[in-house]
Amino acid sequence: MKKFEVEDLTKIFGRSPVKGLELVRQGKEKEEILKETGMTVGVNRASFSVDSGEVFVIMGLSGSGKSTLVRLLNRLIEPTEGSVKLDGEDITKMNSEQLREARRTKMGMVFQRFALFPHKSVCENVEYGLEIQGVPKQERNKKALESLGLVGLENYADSYPDQLSGGMQQRVGLARALANDPDILLMDEAFSALDPLIRKDMQDELMDLQSSMQKTIIFITHDLDEALRIGDRIALMKDGKIVQIGTPEDILTNPANEYVEKFVEDVNLTKVLTASSIMKRSEALVLGKDGPRVALKRMREKGTSTVMVVGRDRTFLGVLTAEGAKEVAENGKSIEDVLIKDAVVVEEDTPVSDLLPKMAENQFAYPAVVTNEQGKLRGVVVRGAMFAALAGNGVNNDATS
Amino acid sequence: MQLPKIPLEQWIDTFVTWLTENFSGLFDFITNIIEPTVDFFQMILTLAPPVITVAVISLLVLLASRLSVALFTLVGLLLIVNLQLWEQSVETISLVLTASLVSVIIGVPLGILAARKQWVQNILTPVLDFMQTMPAFVYLIPAVFFFALGAVPGVIASVIFAMPPTIRLTNLGIRQVPKDLIEAADAFGSTSFQKLFKVQLPLAKSTIMAGMNQTIMLSLSMVVIASMIGAGGLGDVVLQAISRLEVGQGFEGGLAIVIIAIVLDRVTQSLGNGKRKIS
Ligand SMILES: Nc1ncnc2c1ncn2[C@@H]1O[C@H](COP(=O)(O)OP(=O)(O)OP(=O)(O)O)[C@@H](O)[C@H]1O
Ligand SMILES: [Mg+2]
Questions:
Q1: Hey, where are the domains in chain B?
Q2: What is B9-272's CATH number?
Q3: Does A162 sit within 8 Å of B278, measured CB to CB?
């Protein structure tokens, strides 16, 4: 189901946007228009749609129009032209009351510099969205505390924003956006002001929340690493235009033009990195020794849905999935019958750039298997480790998919 | 060659006469609001014997401000009582309070309007500049014209002279609220009233209070000058001293004014800074 459908959305800053619009239609570039008329093209005829439950990342260099685009979605900025359909209703045509209602119930926003109200306590901040809807004090307090609980800050309800660290403040910002229980989260560089370690935590936390709550998230960032980590799809912007929209794999493997290529260029560390440098050690199931129940127990412990099966000499035999193991346990089949043999198998010194297309081919269904020259199991490469490597932050043996 | 003089004087005079003839109802209405207000403050301040009133005031100051300010208030006001200037001081304080009250009641909404509508600010800015750069006692003349002599024209002149800082700083305080906080308020679907009362005004509070503080100080200085048109109070004491060349009496009157000025200043300042304390 489509959550947002954006068509031909354009924003021109300046004195006579209508004239600017004409120039844009003639295909003039942002820079030309600025030189000729002094007007700035914020967003240039952007069209895309976002599915319900999707994490849609908008990425681009500074000044490329990301903030403008996200503000056009909830009409904090009036569009010059184009339409934004939210659940089929055109935001750009709403009167102020309808717009307010949509903002109150459907969209929560998280800001780069947190934008917490300094004169309100953490709890009052989180309550704000409910307060202005006239929700009774007790009820909104309860909801605010629940929302703070989601981000692990229920003990700080009575603190003031300036008493919290940046990471905590942004959690409050997230809790404030979640308190109204909106379908959509708009996040404008929500994590950019945080230092790298906390930033990773926040990304993980957001992904956890996302998997349990299934919000539609529009996430702005200028950081490729972040985009690859959290995005289901990524839109790349340049000079107000969207130059490519695609899955992280698309963007990395088929850059639409030079700009995108340049953007992902740093990622080509993949030519140097080898499978062994990004694999993690994998415990294996020894055929003929361990049964399906052991397999299921291992998967549960590790939180994975597959386990590697090897012979007594650690020769790799195949991948056993949870479903497979269940069938064995319940229907008395043998492990060999359900073993998956077509997993990607590479040797330790295979470059990551060769590994990626292979993994992409089978939709990253299973971890790639890394063996030595004799075909003995050395480790596995999971999807997360692959992307971490692509994003240029190298080896992360703890990554799980 | 001698250019003929522009008859500005006559024009203004004609205009003022026209105003007095056609708007006397309005001027009566204003008088009927201001006079009782001044009387009300005077009545409150003279309910009890001076010493008791001073004690009560000092206690109130203690609640609103610091101990040192309260002590200064107590000692200072007792000194005024001792100098037998209490009656005149009460007159002055009543005029100041009335003028400040009127300034705030008119000035804060005007400041809010100026912050929200650019055209209001565009009109107000030159008017405010004009109001503040005119020498203070120039206001006395039209005030006398419309309201005769006494307390009312004194208050009117003070309001005109003292209101600009409240308008300016209310406008400034609201405009200074960070843009992303306004965006946050909008993004959650605030009405403009909710935005004003829940975000803009609370955040502009200390700036607005600074404006009010200036307004109060300016209206004190104007009220003293207004004794020239019979507003009464401590200004009278000083004015008499000047005309009779009595240095000592002039000093006493001046001292009383300074004491009142310091008390008003400190109290309004601590009200402005009386924000949440970080524990
Ligand atoms: N209120 C405004 N008035 C005029 N021009 C503006 C305004 N807001 C943004 N712009 C211009 O629109 C373009 C896009 O700005 P925008 O803030 O959307 O970029 P961004 O991609 O979010 O950049 P950053 O990564 O620095 O936040 C820029 O050229 C900017 O100068
Ligand atoms: Mg931005």
A1: 9-272
A2: 1.10.3720.10
A3: yes
Closest ligand to the CA of A46: 1
Q: How many CA atoms lie within 13 A of A82 on its CB side?
A: 26
**Ligand 1 pocket check for A68: Cβ under 6 Å:** yes
- Contact residues of A toward B, CB < 8 A: 71, 74, 76, 99-104, 107-109, 111-113, 115-119, 128-129, 131-133, 160, 162-163, 176, 180, 186
| Chain B interface mutation, best of A117, A121, A126, A180, highest count of B Cβ atoms under 10 Å | A117
List chain A pLDDT tens, one digit each, 401 residues.
Answer: 899 999 999 999 998 898 888 888 888 888 899 988 989 999 999 999 999 999 999 999 889 999 999 999 999 999 999 999 999 999 999 999 999 999 999 999 999 899 999 999 999 999 999 999 999 999 999 999 999 998 889 899 999 999 999 889 999 999 999 998 999 999 999 998 888 778 888 888 888 888 888 899 999 998 887 888 888 999 999 999 999 999 887 787 777 888 777 777 665 556 556 787 788 877 788 887 888 888 888 888 877 888 888 888 888 888 888 888 888 888 878 888 888 888 888 888 887 878 888 888 878 888 888 888 888 888 888 888 888 777 655 444 443 43
Tokens 């990554």 belong to: A399
How close is the nearest chain B Cα to the Cα of A76, in Å? Answer: 7
Which carries the bigger pLDDT value, residue A196 or residue B55? B55
Whether residue A74 contacts residue A129, with contact meaning beta carbons closer than 8 Å, is answered with no
> Is the shortest distance between the CB of A66 and ligand 1 below 6 Å?
yes
Nearest CA in chain A to B191: A100
Provide ipTM, 2 decimals: 0.80
Antiparallel, parallel or unpaired: β A345-347 and A368-371: parallel
Give CATH 3.10.580.10 domain extents, chain A. Answer: 280-391
Which of the residues B176, B188, B200 would you substitute to probe the A interface, choosing the one with the greatest number of A C-beta atoms within 10 Å?
A: B188
Q: Which of A74, A107, A111 sits opposite B180 (nearest CB)?
A: A111
Q: The domain A280-391: what is its CATH number?
A: 3.10.580.10
Domain ranges in chain A with CATH number 3.40.50.300: 53-81+93-269
CA distance A12 to chain B (A): 19
Topology at the third CATH level for domain A53-81+93-269:
Rossmann fold (3.40.50)
Sheet holding A40-51, edge to edge: A40-51, A2-13, A81-86, A89-90
From the CA of A227, how far away is ligand 2's center (Å)? 15
- Cα–Cα distance list, A354 to A262, A284, A357 (Å): 20, 25, 6
The answer to whether the beta carbons of residues A170 and A193 sit under 8 Å apart is yes
